[in-house]
Amino acid sequence: MKIKLFCFFVLFCVISRAQVVSLKQLKQQVTKNNDALQYDQSIQLLCDFISNDRTTAFEKYTAYLYKAHTYKRLFNYESTIENLDLAFSEGIKSDQKQLVTNTIKAQKAFCYFDQHFYDKASLLMKDLEKSNYAKLDDEDKSFIIMQEGYLAFLNKDFKTAENKLNLSIAVAQNNSNVRRNLPNMYGKKIELYNAMNRFDKRDEAFRIGIKIAKEYKIIKYEMYLYEVLRNVLQKNNDYKNAFEIQKKYDSIAFLYNASNHNGKIAVLEKKIENNKQKLEEKNRLYLDIFLIILISILVLLLIISVRLYFIGKERRALLQAENKRIHDEIERLTKQIDEQGNSTFDFSKFDLTERQLEIIQFIKEGKSNKEIAALLFISENTVKYHLKIIYEILNIDHRSELTK
Questions:
Q1: What's the pLDDT at 10?
Q2: Comparing C-alpha atoms, which of 56, 57, 58, 21 is closest to residue 42?
Q3: Distances (CA, A) of 9 to 5, 279, 296, 335
Q4: Of 181, 309, 315, 331, which is most buried by a Cβ count within 10 Å?
Q5: Contact (Cβ atoms closer than 8 angstroms) between residue 146 and residue 188
């Protein structure tokens, strides 16, 4: 019983690690952690989710996507791209190939755009535009349109830039889950309106963007807006106000401390990898033990089965020999050969009753069952019953054998 329980426990540990959260719950928890600057908790949660044996390819794709988002918030673009590639390698195994392909293109375009690799970003954005942004959700679509607007701004096409930015804001406003990203759009508007010398619109864009960033408690967006405003003020030679904005930026940057978070996460990733290797080694050991026990039990069962087979075979042989001996003895005792070569029964050798011997004598005289019944004052059925017993005792099949 103990061995069975141990085997069941080992098997359960190896192959039955149940999924505990849905993708919706995972996204909510990662977003909550990231907004609270608890990036290490997000990475731990995502690594656990990905390493679960029951996680599907599409679920792993989504989890790697959330890891990329987390690293992007820390400006760790190398890890962002790495996780986007991992997301693609998992997602392409699913039945959502176009969604996966376009989403990864969009995310990489965002990453290149943030690093000012506008040519790389532009190539991906043109591919998405050709597909009419197929399968992209509102969040990705609003960012792509925003970047199109910013590239138009860089090309001095201010009218197109403003229209694109307004469109990206409209897409984000219509989706409560995407509205939290509006500070990005308003940051681009700050640069646009400063270049157009529309300083009132510039300052209004800054105020709206900061308000939304504070509403959603996204410190990264606050830093971004202060940085954009500082840069345009410096470009305008407004160093006094630029200095004040820089001080606010520094205070937020100290709180954010992206480098420190990156360091913690790097250590955490290494720790997770080490723990994963140790767990795999332990699981392999448990599996080896389980297989050894299982093989031992199977070998033991095989030996027992073979032994039982030969014992049964020996018993059957002995039984057949004994049956033959008994049969031969019965033949010897019950049959004799008369002088003419006809076999005859020696009824004295059998345990027959007086009534049964009377019935046998009448049959030898050629009497029918009905006649015998009348002579013995019994029913015909009683005669038949006696004959049945006689046949069984003498091991014969028909009354004619009684007359030999």
A1: 45
A2: 21
A3: 6, 16, 18, 69
A4: 181
A5: yes
Tell me the torsion sign for CA atoms 31, 228, 171, 94. negative
Strand partners, 344: 336
Alpha-carbon distance 227 to 210, whole Å?
12
Six-digit token pair at 281?
Answer: 């080694």
Query: To which H or E segment does residue 253 belong?
Result: helix 239-256
Per DSSP, what are the bridge partners of residue 65? none
Look at residue 84 in the predicted model and tell me its pLDDT.
96
Q: Which two tokens stand for residue 243?
A: 């200095």
Residue 95 has pLDDT above 80, yes or no: yes
Q: Which of 43-47, 166-170, 312-316, 374-378 has the lowest mean pLDDT?
A: 312-316
Residue 344 Cα to chain centre, angstroms: 82
CA distance linking residue 280 with residue 142, whole number of Å: 42
For residue 212, what is the DSSP state? H
How far CA 383 is from CA of 74, 168, 294, 356, 359, in Å, comes to 108, 110, 65, 9, 8
* CA-based nearest residue to 249, from 236, 260, 263, 233: 233
**Is the pLDDT confidence value at 167 over 90?**
yes
Closest-CA residue to 269 (of 15, 107, 59, 82)? 82
Give residue 145's pLDDT. Answer: 94
What is the chain's Cα-based Rg?
47
Question: Which residue's structure tokens are 């990489």?
Answer: 108
The two structure tokens encoding residue 325: 């001996």
Question: Which amino acid is residue 296, in one-letter code?
Answer: S
DSSP 179: G
Q: Which residue has the tokens 């202060």?
A: 226
Neighbours of 355 (CB within 10 A): 13
Residue 16's pLDDT is 41
What is the spatial distance between Cα 262 and Cα 70, in angstroms, rounded to a whole number? 10
Tell whether the model's pLDDT for residue 15 goes beyond 50: no
